[in-house]
Amino acid sequence: MTQALIVVDVQNDFCPGGALAVPGGDEVVAPINAMMAQFETVILTQDWHPAGHSSFASAHPGKAPFETVEMPYGTQVLWPDHCVQGTGGAAFHKDLRTDGDLIIRKGFRPAIDSYSGFFENDRTTPTGLEGYLRSRGITRLALAGLATDFCVAFTALDAARLGFEVTVNLAACRAIDLDGSLQAALDQMKEAGIALQS
Ligand code: VGL
Ligand code: ZN
């Protein structure tokens, strides 16, 4: 099998009641569990920040969540504190199947955020996921999870840039949609030749 499923950040903090709740975030669990049965290789990503992470508004005096700040690697949206390592908010949704082959944690370096499962937000520091997939002979990827316009889109765009054939299952994704970020992400994914499935 040359195809893998990547399940992006289906964690409590991105579900209703969580610190950075994505509207309808928990609705992806059932369709993703069903998808998992169709794939021999399943990888889950997990947003995994140290307390005080530089992507948190609380780490920037005078800044509020959803404002932006200039970092050495570019513009960074500031988020409410979320997915802090070892907390319940960072745990996977309790109904999500987590019996995949690999869990890739990201966003653990204090000074840089990582939306993508492949590269941190400087778009160059690798997570190791590419090597894992290549050494397993995987060339095609299906993606689902949270959030469509941030971690799913960044992962999909990096995958396409690396030469993987990518499909995003939009029915199993939900978006944050900050100032048109969903439409922008959909346009960028289409432009990159990513198949969008609804
Ligand atoms: C995400 C914002 C901050 C995501 C993670 O999973 O889309 N968004 N950290
Ligand atoms: Zn995060």
From TrEMBL:
Recorded E.C. number(s)?
3.5.1.19
The entry sums up its family as follows: Belongs to the isochorismatase family.
The pathway to which it is assigned is: Cofactor biosynthesis; nicotinate biosynthesis; nicotinate from nicotinamide: step 1/1
Designated gene of the protein: pncA
The taxonomic lineage of its organism, from the top, reads: Bacteria, Pseudomonadati, Pseudomonadota, Alphaproteobacteria, Rhodobacterales
Q: Which organism is it from?
A: Leisingera aquaemixtae
The alphabetized UniProt keywords are:
Hydrolase, Metal-binding, Pyridine nucleotide biosynthesis
Alphabetized GO MF terms: nicotinamidase activity
Q: Name one Pfam family in it.
A: Isochorismatase
Q: Is-annotated flag, keyword Hydrolase?
A: yes
Listed name of the protein: nicotinamidase
- Isochorismatase-like domain mapped to chain residues: 4-195
Q: Which domain of life is it from?
A: Bacteria
